[in-house]
Amino acid sequence: MANNGRNPRMGFEIRKKGKVLRAEEFAAKMKEIQEKAQAALRKAQEEMKKQMDRHREEVEEYKVRDIVLLSTKDLKWQIVGKRTDKLTERFVRPYRVKGIISSNAIELDLPSSVRIHPVVNVSRIHRYRDQVKGQKVTPSPPVEI
User: Fold this and answer.
1) Structural domain boundaries in the chain
2) Taking Cα atoms as reference points, which of 102, 87, 94 lies closest to residue 71?
3) Contact 76, 88 (CB under 8 A)
4) What pairs with residue 127 in β-bridges?
5) What is the pLDDT of residue 5?
6) How many CA within 13 A on the CB side of residue 55?
7) Is the pTM of this model over 0.70?
8) Lowest-pLDDT range, 59-63, 126-130, 137-141?
9) Is residue 63 scored above 50 in pLDDT?
10) Which candidate, 80, 65, 60, 81, places its Cα nearest to that of 124?
């Protein structure tokens, strides 16, 4: 006590009981800041959801054994003959739905010659529709060079 006017700290003293006003003010301020930040995050999240939902469409429901066409959008490198994008078909042969993985993923019954994963996103398939009765199918003539 002689050197600096205080008793030396021994390390095992019991803390004084009582409330520290500055600590309580700090805790209250931090809680208020946290609540404001959470409110701002909730508002931003709702706004983002609103903007995203403007562009969303309802997903078509598929069942097992439905017949669908597969898009060639990501299959261009596998198409034999390597025709130009302009002349390549947009969808290829009808395939049967083997299973439903989720509302966005469908498993197709693909032959072994098609070397892609059988689970595809629903954005890459379209429901197959038969031709109208009485509609004539005329094959196009061969291309002459």
Assistant:
1) 19-56, 67-127
2) 94
3) yes
4) 68
5) 63
6) 4
7) no
8) 137-141
9) yes
10) 60
